[in-house]
Structures are given as structure tokens and as C-alpha cells.
From TrEMBL:
<dbReference type="InterPro" id="IPR002109">
    <property type="entry name" value="Glutaredoxin"/>
</dbReference>
<dbReference type="InterPro" id="IPR014434">
    <property type="entry name" value="Monothiol_GRX"/>
</dbReference>
<dbReference type="GO" id="GO:0051537">
    <property type="term" value="F:2 iron, 2 sulfur cluster binding"/>
</dbReference>
<comment type="similarity">
    <text>Belongs to the glutaredoxin family. Monothiol subfamily.</text>
</comment>
<keyword id="KW-0479">Metal-binding</keyword>
<keyword id="KW-0411">Iron-sulfur</keyword>
<dbReference type="InterPro" id="IPR036249">
    <property type="entry name" value="Thioredoxin-like_sf"/>
</dbReference>
<dbReference type="InterPro" id="IPR004480">
    <property type="entry name" value="Monothiol_GRX-rel"/>
</dbReference>
<dbReference type="Pfam" id="PF00462">
    <property type="entry name" value="Glutaredoxin"/>
</dbReference>
<feature type="domain" description="Glutaredoxin">
    <location>
        <begin position="17"/>
        <end position="80"/>
    </location>
</feature>
<dbReference type="GO" id="GO:0046872">
    <property type="term" value="F:metal ion binding"/>
</dbReference>
<feature type="binding site">
    <location>
        <position position="30"/>
    </location>
    <ligand>
        <name>[2Fe-2S] cluster</name>
    </ligand>
</feature>
<protein>
    <recommendedName>
        <fullName>Glutaredoxin</fullName>
    </recommendedName>
</protein>
<keyword id="KW-0408">Iron</keyword>
<dbReference type="InterPro" id="IPR033658">
    <property type="entry name" value="GRX_PICOT-like"/>
</dbReference>
<dbReference type="GO" id="GO:0015036">
    <property type="term" value="F:disulfide oxidoreductase activity"/>
</dbReference>
<keyword id="KW-0001">2Fe-2S</keyword>
Length: 110
């Protein structure tokens, strides 16, 4: 297993909710990453943000890992949930809150 694949696997297995994003949760560096951070923050979900802009190998590696061409990418309990459009749609349909509940993810704002 390559170092980057090992790193990605470790992040998604060691953290219940991981967002591979451009920038950080405090300072997102793209609108799509910012939208997902806002949604997670609104729901009160604790998550780990991983800045793919820090490392070209990571940015390309996470796309290959998930077989998904864009960033951000949200993983919940080791499973790829989706990118910005999917997360936003799930949030707007009130499916995201239920998904987190069903998977035992704590939310402050429920």
C-alpha cells in the first residue's frame, strides 16, 4: 500500500467524520469546501478537516481512493458519503441529519 493510500485509510478509520477539503475548517479555500463546513457546523457535527492543498499527492490520491473526481469529499465511519452537491442535497432534504443519527454520530444542533 502506498504511503498516501495508507494516510487516507488511517484518517478515515481513526476519525468518525473526515472531510478532505481545500483549506481548513476555519479557513476554507473554495466555495464547495466552505458549503460542506457550514452544513456540518450548522448540524453541530464534529469532524476532522484534511487540507488537500498541502500536498499534491494527497489531492490526487484521495480522488483515486474514492473514485470521485472532485474535492471536498466527506467520509463517515470509514465510508465515502459524497461531495458538496450530494451533502447539500441530503441536507436540504433533511436526510443528512437522519444519516448521522442512524450512524451514531453526535450532533449538537438537533
Amino acid at each position: 500500500m502506498s504511503d498516501i493510500k495508507f494516510f487516507i485509510t488511517s484518517e478515515i478509520m481513526d476519525n468518525e467524520v473526515v472531510l478532505f477539503m481545500k483549506g481548513t475548517p476555519v479557513f476554507p479555500q473554495c466555495g464547495f469546501s466552505s458549503q460542506v463546513v457550514q452544513i456540518l457546523s450548522y448540524l453541530g457535527v464534529s469532524f476532522k478537516g484534511v487540507n488537500v492543498l498541502d500536498n499534491d499527492e494527497l489531492r490526487e490520491g484521495v480522488k483515486a481512493f474514492s473514485n470521485w473526481p472532485t474535492i471536498p469529499q466527506l467520509y463517515v465511519k470509514g465510508v465515502f458519503l459524497g461531495g458538496c452537491d450530494i451533502i447539500r442535497e441530503m441536507f436540504e432534504e433533511d436526510e443528512l441529519r437522519q444519516f448521522f443519527k442512524d450512524n451514531g454520530i453526535d450532533m449538537i444542533n438537533v
